[in-house]
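In this supplementary section we document a worked example of the pipeline. Step one takes a protein sequence of length 419 as its only input; no multiple sequence alignment statistics are reported here. Step two produces a three-dimensional model, which step three serialises into structure tokens for compact storage. The input and output of this example are shown verbatim.
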Amino acid sequence: MRFKTLEEWLAWQEQLHPNPIDLGLERARRVLETLGLARPPYRMLTVGGTNGKGSSVAFAEAMLRAGGYRVGAYTSPHILRYNERIRVEGVDVSDVELCESFDRIDQARGEMSLTYFEFGTLAAFDILARRGVEVAVLEVGLGGRLDAVNAVDPDAALVASVGLDHQDWLGPDRESIGYEKAGIYRGGRPAIYGDREPPASLLQHAGSIGARLQRIGRDFDWREEGGRWTWRGRGGVLHDLPAPALPGRIQYDNASTVIAALRSLDAVLPLTEQAIRDGLVQAAVPARFQRVSGEVECIFDVAHNPDAARVLAANLAAMPAAGHTYGVMGMFRDKAAEEVALALAPRLDRWYLGGTEGARGQSAADLGKRVHAAVPQANAVEYASVPDAYAAARRDARSGDRVVVFGSFQTVAAVLKDL
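The serialised model returned by step three reads:
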């Protein structure tokens, strides 16, 4: 084995390929073929989209597990530990499993270099097969069409939403991005879409390949009824459902879309209504409006694009604080900080801006210029790092106030790892 520890493997992977991001399927497919995993021995649901992917994976994983299936899940990025990316039966895989899988992939690749993300995705396919899962729920990383997760044909594919993010890679507008997201759909197989305003490019692509498209608002939908809700779709009607465990109105859309996807697989993965109900209340995902109670409540949300910021703002409005709301913000320089600031400005009384690290990092001073360009009246203070900004917000907060940490996975992780 090339390395003994997970840390050594990951540090090497970060340097192996000439480009950190290099979209394409050929490399992943070649390694999968060598490993005998071109057609993995389990059912697959792939989950793509700009926002809502993590929540959708959580709902699907919880419902399938409640239905008695042995379930594996793959998500990215992680919050605190790389191991979070691959789960079997709700438990993160071990360092040993990852290292052994990386060794198999290293031998299978020959002289071909792989990206950091490709190594992780291939490890997910490999480990889930070796652990004998019956069904895998796989989150697509960047885009869809050329993402390594898309190297294998799924039984069904779900796109939760299409919004503006990663425009340097996916195109300048929703039509361009919608085409890339639709690339995870397959002809003759269920293709589920959970956004009420679908880009024409996504609809056209699904139609051109003969995918069995279902859209929220047309083929399935939900309606709230006295604190409970009803789902209607091609799989029938589900009455008196419990509220989703994940907070926010948008989670009804996400849960409904997942139900449509799982109902479309009923012939091969039948689920009872009780399994769906249990999954709704058992689903959990870290750092998506994650609330930590106390005299000063803390909320952690990885919102890092305009659509996600609007959802965060809606959640804050629906759950007002007794006192002030202080925002701890750290964002990469390639993100739309101005639009994020505009979305959250009505909900924040004071901004605590922290610098972010890495090649895409952004100083608090530069972030402050962008926030003030969008929200000139913003009461903002700048700090060298996100932990420094968070510490200042906690010092200023009094009983009844709340502190909201947002802007990226790195921002949330920088605070959570110290708690």
